Amino acid sequence: MKRPKSPIVGVLLVSIALLLPAISAARASEPNTLLGALEQIESESGGLCDAPAGDASLEATIAALLDSVDASGTPLRDSPFPVEALNEIVFRRLGIKASRDIHNPCNLLPSAVLARREGYCVGIAAIYLILAEQLNLPVHAVAIPSHVYLRYDDGRSRIDIETLALGAPTPEGLAEVTAPSSATARGRVAFPRDLDRDQFLAQVHNNLGVIRSERSDHEHAALEYQKALDLDPLFSAAWYNWGNDLFIGGRYREAIGKLNEALRLYPVDTWALNNRGRA
Q1: How far is the C-alpha of 199 from the C-alpha of 230, rounded, in Å?
Q2: Which of 42, 92, 135, 239 is the most buried (most CB within 10 A)?
């Protein structure tokens, strides 16, 4: 996400909630699941968030949440209104609130979001997507240049989910998207952009890179940007943020190279144009 009046920008997203007790913990712990990948990211990001998240792992916390769902009702996977059911769990039963503070890693990492009942778009989306994955519900993340929201799409119904507005169907900032209509044909990125699991994880790594950069830990920030781009080479914001860090460090030629890549993918990015000019 681009932060106005700041040389460093990040992309933010996310939200996750509860599911059914019928889902096994063994399945949740598989490394190729979103839950397993996010748990690994949390283990590698120890110390960034000082919020008490309890002694339980993210997997155990999710399993406990699933166990707390009333099994006497209609199973969520069989609900005729799955989006409404997920919104009820995440925003009313769990009471997760939206935050605009993108500088706080506790608003990004899922365990802290669950413990504090607060997060920004990427953090809340992570919770939501974990639950959807466990329930085999067709929900995925969608990115625009400065925001991430969610979309339910079963081939018949398509419903957008705005995590910063209690699941409302109108994504924030969508009207401001100005990507060229022929972007995809020229190898550029067109928005809104549907994200798969790896591309969503790239958003998380990019946000961690921005947070580490704000703490002047540019070495680890670069590692996070590299992880983001390994997962999603078309992630223009990660190229942009990495270029900004290199510019701040006085590595101007390298900065220009990263910003060139950001602009190749998204040529109407005025922040990248401005900062490339400065470099």
Answers
A1: 10
A2: 239
CA–CA dist 164, 63 (Å, integer)? 25
Flag whether 191 is in a domain.
no
69 shares a domain with 33: yes
Classify the C-alpha dihedral 157-170-236-225 as positive or negative. negative
* Crossing angle (nearest 10°) for helices 236-248 and 252-265: 160
Helix (H, G, I), strand (E, B) or coil at 97: strand
Residue type, 146: S
Per-residue pLDDT of 116-151, as tens digits, reads 999 999 999 999 999 889 888 999 999 998 899 999
What residue has token string 């998204």?
Answer: 266
| Domain final residue, candidates 152, 170, 188 | 170
Counting the structural domains of the chain, the total is 2
Structural domain boundaries, residue 132:
25-170
